[in-house]
């Protein structure tokens, strides 16, 4: 038997461990009964090996378990409970490779390996690791059939209009530089596909498509041949690293004696075309033979690295659409004009930029912040627990117009960016920024600086985990047919058309493979494809389509049908888009848009350009209401019937008139403290607020002051009931909410149950929005709830804020934001928004004397059973780091109870005596204070 102490039990389900221990002791006891020991070992071994095989046969498990019951079960020393425990552990082994490995090592001192599929999945880049288990397996299996190694740089060039983006792109790409083009203002996005040459330059990828695919197949065959071909087949060596590649000018001495590598592979493959693993690829090899003879073979100058350069329009009007194309797999050039001070106001004739959170009179610094926030949101933010590797290169333009000599200009540039990055102090956004920054004069095309920028871009790309990832040969054909359709001018495809293309392929993909192939193509940035109920019927081949759609809603023609005049004025004034107006806009659009109006709607919702208010009963469930709730609010009760069928287009709203305090802190009325949703890392996409406004419009009537609707860009007010008004507003990364009442009843408190209900609606909506850009379980940490000092006369941005969870540990804090330092006590701070919870905790506190005792294993087990939706926050409250939590979650995320138990054990081990029942209970309360009521959890608190 193995040395149990040395074997890691990390991440193993406690129940599986317990059962495994039974197996260990039984195996020890029957050691001397050779026959029984042999039978038991054979059964355990057979199940272990089968469970690790790729196409495991369930019959093996059932057969062997039956064999165990028939031969050994219920005999001495296999008591009834021991027999059950062993059957249990066999089942655990079948489903969990780590249990199998643990059992085999601890009982028989045998190391059993991982399946090749498991190993392949482990090598996936981080974003593909998030594929669901079934997709991951399909992908790994497709890779086993053959793969190519992908090295693609996706370069996003962003910055204010006129900063010099197009000029820089022209300088980076040889063919454009040679043409000495005069840049014209970019409309939407210009996408240039390039190939990296061995001298480091980039040339446009205009080569014959078939030739390109020929190269890809050939490279892929090399990979296949290395893993699958018998060793006696000689395959051409992989190309040397770029730096070692000979230049075209220096011909290779052995070149004449060498066979064309493709021919050599074709020869080998033809000879063995009937062999397993080769048969699949034979037709592909034949296909590549069809390459026209007149295509020059120029592999010597081009590398296998592709670069797609995205030149974004700088007008703020387009900013929201740009976010759609940003993802984790991009390298960014963020450009700033060095002749413009950071605090200078941007002069833009078109004021439609307000929708993306940039107000009409924004400064260059605000534009810079907008871009970094957006990059963070759409690339690193999703994997908050993961480490962020730099992908953003800052570039200053108009060096020629700066004062001073070269050295002085460099210093100015450094100071400029240091100043621009100051607002991000302490934020992980800084981790995106590459330490090297550049200063360019775009008018000096031959400046070696452009070569340097290209080199750094490549260096950065090589460090990303997706660099050199594998892509199944099987999927190349589909990519090829999408390419062909794009070349024919197709902007978007219905799924039916894709299915036809697929059926025409030599090796059509299965339905699941096809969906996965499209998903991966989307991740690579070649298409837009979202596997959601509303969007999975459409594939967008050309990003420009999205831009055109967007423009329809922002810059529409005003020849309206008189019948719809009223709806048009609702659109103009309230930004509320009724179906009549929507259809009118669609009718006047190009065919590709008007014929896909339903998809247009869904895409615009997805892009947050317009928001459809939630239907609570359907939409809120998944995020926060996993478990049956007895006491939750009936979220559908307050539907405002006037505005059921509409969208809100928040970019059309105007700013509120000053002073804003008249809305946020009205005098002479009863009011709750200000409730604040503070987003982590000081960043909140402004669309979250706009969408929250849409939810509110769907739920309550818009509040009126005289004849004016209180609906503005950044602030909105709603009638709750009788005299109650809810006002919500936002600034930067904080959304504020306050309920006021002009009641004449000066004695009673505000209705705290109503406040609780409103808070939950706001909270759950925000969680849903966050859930679309953050992945579970990180959603629950997307924002924190704070209460602003109730004594503050005028609500000031980000001042006098108290984290609600801290009141679970301490009953009072000092407020230093008010002119006079004073105490703020729990009951006062939480009286309206959280009173429901406070009352509940107080009832349970009656018999809490025994709590100062160490937390026992049974307490941990119980906590893991009752914690419910606060399960992630509890770990954070107990002081576990995101990294610790993520590690455990990776292993145990599919079994919440075990996951919680595992981190509770980690907490108890690290805290020792301080891990008391009381501290556990406080942390549980803090984790649940924001959540809807849940009887099971609350009883335990
Ligand atoms: N002096 C000088 N002019 C520059 C520089 N970079 C760009 N320009 C000029 O600025 C103008 C705008 O340049 P573009 O490259 O079109 O700017 P852009 O950022 O692509 O503009 P949009 O597409 O409208 O967002 C052109 O006339 C360029 O020649 C530079 O480094 N120095």
From TrEMBL:
InterPro entries: DEATH-like_dom_sf, Death_dom, P-loop_NTPase, ROC, WH-like_DNA-bd_sf. It comes from Dreissena polymorpha. The keyword Acetylation does not apply. PANTHER family: C-TERMINAL OF ROC (COR) DOMAIN-CONTAINING PROTEIN, PROTEIN TORNADO 1. Residues 856-925 form the Death domain. The keyword Nucleotide-binding applies. PROSITE patterns: DEATH_DOMAIN, ROC. This is C-terminal of Roc (COR) domain-containing protein. One of its GO terms (biological process) is signal transduction. One of its GO terms (molecular function) is nucleotide binding. SUPFAM superfamilies: DEATH domain (SSF47986), P-loop containing nucleoside triphosphate hydrolases (SSF52540). Keywords: Nucleotide-binding, Repeat. Residues 146-464 form the Roc domain.
């Amino acid at each position: 038997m193995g040395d149990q102490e040395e074997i890691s039990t990390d991440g193993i389900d406690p129940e599986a461990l317990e059962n495994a221990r039974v197996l260990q002791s039984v195996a020890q006891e029957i050691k001397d009964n050779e026959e029984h020991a042999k039978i038991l070992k054979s059964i355990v071994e057979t199940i272990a090996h089968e469970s690790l095989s790729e196409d495991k046969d369930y019959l093996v498990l059932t057969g062997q378990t039956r064999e165990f019951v028939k031969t050994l079960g219920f005999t001495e020393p296999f008591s009834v409970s021991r027999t059950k425990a062993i059957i249990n552990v066999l089942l655990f082994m079948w489903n969990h490779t780590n249990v199998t490995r643990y059992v085999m090592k601890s009982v028989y001192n045998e190391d059993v390996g991982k399946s090749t599929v498991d190993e392949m999945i482990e090598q996936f880049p981080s974003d593909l690791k998030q594929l669901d288990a079934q997709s991951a397996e399909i992908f790994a299996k497709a890779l086993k059939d053959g793969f190519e190694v992908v090295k693609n740089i996706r370069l996003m060039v962003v910055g204010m209009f006129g900063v010099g983006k197009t000029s820089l792109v022209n300088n980076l790409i040889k063919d454009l530089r040679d043409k000495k083009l005069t840049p014209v203002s970019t409309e939407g996005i210009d996408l240039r596909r390039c190939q990296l040459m061995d001298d480091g330059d980039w040339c446009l990828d205009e080569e014959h498509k078939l030739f390109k695919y020929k190269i890809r197949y050939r490279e892929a065959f090399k990979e296949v041949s290395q893993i699958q071909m018998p060793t006696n087949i000689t395959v051409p060596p992989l190309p040397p690293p770029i730096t070692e590649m000979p230049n075209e000018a220096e011909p290779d001495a052995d070149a004449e004696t060498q066979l064309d590598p493709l021919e050599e592979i074709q020869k080998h493959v033809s000879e063995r075309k009937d062999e397993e693993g080769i048969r699949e690829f034979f037709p592909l090899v034949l296909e590549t033979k069809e390459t026209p003879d007149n295509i020059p073979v120029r592999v010597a100058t081009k590398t296998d690295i592709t670069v797609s350069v995205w030149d974004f329009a700088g007008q703020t009007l387009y900013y929201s659409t740009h976010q759609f194309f940003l993802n984790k797999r991009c390298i960014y050039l963020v450009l700033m004009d060095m002749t413009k001070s950071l605090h200078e106001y941007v002069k833009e004739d078109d004021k439609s930029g307000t929708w993306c959170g940039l107000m009409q009179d924004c400064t260059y610094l605000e534009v810079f912040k907008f871009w970094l926030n957006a990059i963070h949101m759409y690339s690193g933010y999703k994997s908050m627990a993961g480490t962020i590797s730099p992908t953003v290169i800052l570039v200053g333009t108009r060096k020629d117009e700066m004062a001073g000599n070269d050295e002085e200009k460099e210093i100015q540039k450094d100071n400029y960016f240091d100043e621009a990055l100051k607002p991000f102090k302490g934020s992980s956004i800084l981790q995106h920024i590459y330490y090297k920054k550049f200063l360019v004069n775009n008018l000096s095309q031959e400046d070696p600086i452009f070569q340097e920028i290209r080199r750094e871009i490549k260096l950065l790309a090589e460090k990303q985990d997706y660099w050199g990832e594998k892509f199944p040969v099987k999927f190349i054909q589909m990519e090829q047919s999408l390419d062909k359709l794009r070349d024919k001018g197709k902007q978007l495809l219905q799924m039916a058309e894709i299915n036809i293309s697929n059926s025409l392929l030599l090796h059509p993909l299965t339905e699941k493979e096809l969906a996965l192939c499209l998903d991966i193509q989307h991740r690579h940035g070649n298409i837009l494809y979202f596997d959601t109920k509303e969007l999975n019927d459409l594939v967008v081949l050309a990003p420009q389509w999205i831009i055109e759609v967007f423009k329809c809603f922002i810059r529409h023609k005003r020849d309206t049908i008189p019948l719809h005049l009223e709806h048009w004025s609702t659109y103009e004034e309230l930004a509320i888009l009724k179906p009549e107006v929507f259809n009118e806009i669609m009718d006047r659009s190009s065919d590709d848009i008007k014929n896909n109006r339903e998809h247009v709607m869904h895409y615009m919702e997805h892009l947050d350009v317009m928001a459809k208010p939630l239907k609570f009963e359907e939409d809120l469930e998944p995020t926060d209401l996993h478990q049956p709730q007895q006491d939750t609010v009936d979220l559908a009760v307050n539907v405002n019937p006037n505005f059921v069928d509409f969208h809100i287009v928040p970019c059309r709203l105007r700013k509120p008139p000053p002073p804003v305090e008249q809305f946020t802190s009205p005098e002479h009325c009863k009011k709750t403290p200000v409730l604040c949703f503070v987003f982590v890392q000081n960043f909140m996409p402004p669309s979250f607020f706009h969408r929250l406004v849409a939810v509110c419009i769907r739920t309550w009537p818009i509040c009126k002051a005289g004849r004016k609707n209180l609906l503005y860009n950044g602030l909105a007010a709603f009638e709750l009931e009788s005299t109650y008004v809810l006002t919500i507003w936002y600034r930067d990364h904080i959304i504020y909410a306050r309920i006021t009442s002009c009641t004449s009843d000066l004695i009673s408190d505000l209705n705290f149950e109503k406040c609780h209900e409103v808070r939950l609606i706001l909270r759950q909506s925000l969680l849903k929005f966050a859930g679309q850009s953050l992945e579970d379980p990180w959603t629950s940490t997307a924002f924190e709830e704070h209460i602003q000092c109730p004594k503050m006369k005028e609500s000031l941005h980000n001042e006098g804020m108290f984290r609600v969870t801290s009141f679970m540990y301490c009953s009072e804090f000092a407020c230093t934001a008010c002119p006079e330092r004073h105490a703020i006590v729990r009951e006062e701070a939480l009286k309206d928004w959280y009173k429901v919870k406070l009352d509940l905790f107080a009832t349970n506190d009656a018999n809490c004397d025994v709590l100062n005792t160490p937390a026992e294993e049974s307490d941990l087990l119980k906590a893991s059973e009752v914690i419910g939706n606060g399960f992630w926050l509890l770990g954070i409250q107990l002081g576990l780091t995101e990294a610790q939590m993520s590690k455990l979650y990776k292993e145990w995320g599919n079994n919440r109870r075990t996951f919680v138990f595992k981190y509770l054990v980690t907490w108890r081990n690290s805290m020792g005596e301080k891990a008391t029942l009381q501290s556990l209970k406080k942390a549980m309360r803090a984790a649940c204070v924001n959540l809807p009521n849940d009887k099971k959890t609350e009883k335990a608190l």
